Amino acid sequence: MDWVTAGSYAFVGAVMLVLLWPTTSTGRRFLKHWGVRDASEEQVALAVRYLRNRRVLYPPLFLLAPLVLPTGWRPHVFVAAIAALLVAEAIGSFRPTRGLRVAGLTPRKWSDLVQRWAVVALVLLGLLAIGLAVAGLVAQPWADRVSTSAALSDQARAEFGHPVGWTVIVMVVLGLVEVLGIIGFAVSRTSVQDPQVDAVLRTRSARVGAGIGIAWMASAAALAHDRLTFLNETHAPEPPPSWLASAPFGSGFGVLLGVIGLAGWYWVANPGSKMRYAQSAT
């Protein structure tokens, strides 16, 4: 990563931190948004600490994301933001609870915190991404032969010879582990001293983790799909395999995946009318 790119990411990360840094008024609005009205000062302090533990991680993780994400992935800044948010949520969720801790008396399970359909969508998008990645790996021997052709530009030869299927599979596996870990820890972690705030923070953690995970899986599927589209649409000296040439790959499906990822993120990560565990404590 060159200095200009690093500087641009550092600047965007700093702007994110300034805009999202939690204050007392932010914590009060946050609790009201999630159903705790007329929050006390102690409740607001818990919410602010919860938000601060996550948002302080955004800039460094956002800056590090381009170093581990695939080169040339577009939209790079958006994907880096998703990666930073997901890792920040995971680290923030796994940090031990500070202060007075109490034992929760209300039984809970993961479906009380996050919608069942959200987890189903997360898994289905992950399976789609893996299926598309495997298809790209099956076509790789043909792509490797094409990459040696002098009829292609240097950039095209490099892209033909650079598979992304294994990257997508690793992304899906790590994403599932992270998201399911966030949800599981939201269910089982030690309770904070305020039952209302505790229920809200658990619900918010599970739903935000699942929502970001949906966007992440959609991005992984889009990456694998873009690879197949490139192989299918680039004029190569050797015809592609018949199954690849006849497959309906195109930019429209990639756009659809992006819409699904963003819509799923929004619907899952925001409070809804049915939040069983949070509503039982308010």
Map the helices and strands.
Layout: H1 3-20, H2 24-33, H3 41-55, H4 58-68, H5 76-94, E1 101-102, H6 110-113, H7 116-138, H8 140-146, H9 154-160, H10 165-188, E2 191-192, H11 195-233, H12 242-246, H13 251-269, H14 276-281
Antiparallel strand pairs: 1-2
Helix pairs in contact: 1-4, 2-3, 3-5, 4-5, 5-10, 5-11, 7-10, 7-11, 10-11, 11-13
Q: Structural class of the secondary elements?
A: mainly alpha
Which overall shape is indicated by the principal axes computed on the Cα atoms?
elongated
Number of domains: 1
| Main β-sheet, spatial strand arrangement | 1-2
Could you give the order of the helices and strands?
Answer: HHHHHEHHHHHEHHHH
Distance between the termini: 48 Å
Q: Please count the beta strands (DSSP E, at least 2 residues each).
A: 2
Proportion of residues in helical segments: over 70%
Average pLDDT taken over every residue: 84
Whole-number radius of gyration? 22 Å
Number of helices: 14
Q: Biggest sheet, in brief?
A: 2 strands, antiparallel
- What is the beta-strand fraction? under 5%
> Uncertain segments of ≥5 residues (pLDDT<50)?
none
